[in-house]
Predict the 3D structure of the following.
Amino acid sequence: MSWEVVIGLEIHVQLNTASKLFSGSKLSTGAEPNTQASLVDLGMPGTLPVVNKEAVRKAALFGLAINADICRHSVFERKNYFYPDLPKGYQTTQLDKPVVGAGIVEVQLDNGDKKTVRIHHAHLEEDAGKSLHEAFFDEKGHGMTGIDLNRAGTPLIEVVTEPDMSNAEEAVAFAKKLHAIVTSIGICDGDMSQGNMRFDVNVSIRKPGEPLGTRTETKNLNSFRFMERAIKLEVERQIDVLEDGGEIVQETRLYNGETHTARSMRSKEDANDYRYFPCPDLLPVEITNADLDALKAAMPELPDARKARFIADYQLSDYDADLLSGDLATAAFFEGAAKAGGDAKLAANWVMGELAAKLNTEERIISSSPVSADQLGQLIARLKDGTISSKIAKQVFEACWAGEGDPDAIIEAKGLKQMSDSGELEKIVDDIIANNAPQVDDYRNSDDAKKKKKIGFFVGQAMKATQGKANPQQLNQLLKDKLG
Ligand code: ADP
Ligand code: MG
């Protein structure tokens, strides 16, 4: 009997508020260490926290987006532990009365199957600072650890799922959907490389029909790829341990993406160990009916609705609509290019094809694409009206990517307009036929099937003579007419 895998996720989502959860300092912008931390963030005696209403609003908006109950009087608690990046000695978080209660996220898997993942709850909490290990050296050359508190107090929501996923693919599909939701409702910038979303994966295995097995938790995975690999690695490890007659120890593990290895960090602690208690400095956070009505009225378009709209308005396939609607920045880029170019199918193909490939190789996110949606739209318009061929379009795209200007300007400057004056093209075709008598004879003595292949030679010659600018349809017609 094979093993059954059980996965539950805890996801830290960084809220994109103007200031921190309990102080007026700005969220870290990568400034010099400790220049964006106030006395409150440092937990200095005599300072008091004040809850950031925008953070509460954003957390509640998330709750509404996943059809969750919103707690009307949610309570902040202190989770007590020592770590150098936590000067207060406790993290202000929520435990029994989190702002967002149970909810639901619908996920579509790669094979088209649907899956429902239950959300246990989502709570508001502050982030800690960062330890910069071996960032400094003493006079003897010993590495020292520095503490940067710019991140301390950054507002997060921690989203906790039920253990509803049964393989790495499902977990990744869920993670991507969550990313789509939080970016679509505008509560998180979603830049994984900046740690805007961090995943902890809880994994256990069991034989079908057995109760849940002991789980481990692998912490702080900051990319979908690492998450998928870390889950697979942990499942393999657990199978090895159990099949060798061993036992799984409940523990927290750390995954190293570069070496694709994981190690035990600490044995798992219980909530009791942290001596949680309600924070005496903060009143319960009240959310009224009027607050909820206002949030509902201002709810931005959610990914599922956007996908349905893409299918209805742009006649995209389910697959294309799924890919293009998930990430808000991608969706906006696609719509911009489709409108500017007047052709949604071409825009979809370019965004998922050339643009995605280029972003991928240069490890850029779409919001930092050197080619704008308007520029891609212009390129598509020139393709559609026959000014350029698709081959030339790729060349124009490259030039535009390299910063050489708008597609129209590039086409003009480089003389890339498709040769659609048939007189000019006809002369080139005539020359080719005159200069390649043996190939012409061979073509004319071939049957239709062979002719289809052999015409390629003449197309190639003509494209060479015109530097790729011949209109392919016109060229084919001319060649067929003249070769017979
Ligand atoms: P704790 O209170 O110890 O943090 P929770 O019950 O809150 O534990 O669960 C934390 C996360 O672990 C949740 O995402 C949950 O779905 C997941 N989880 C719980 N039990 C298992 C298990 N046996 N296998 C896999 N995941 C699990
Ligand atoms: Mg928990």
Remarks:
- The mean pLDDT is 93.
- The longest strand covers residues 114-126.
- Residues 6-10, 160-163, 202-204, 212-213, 215, 271 surround adenosine-5'-diphosphate (ligand 1) (CB under 6 Å).
- The radius of gyration is 29 Å.
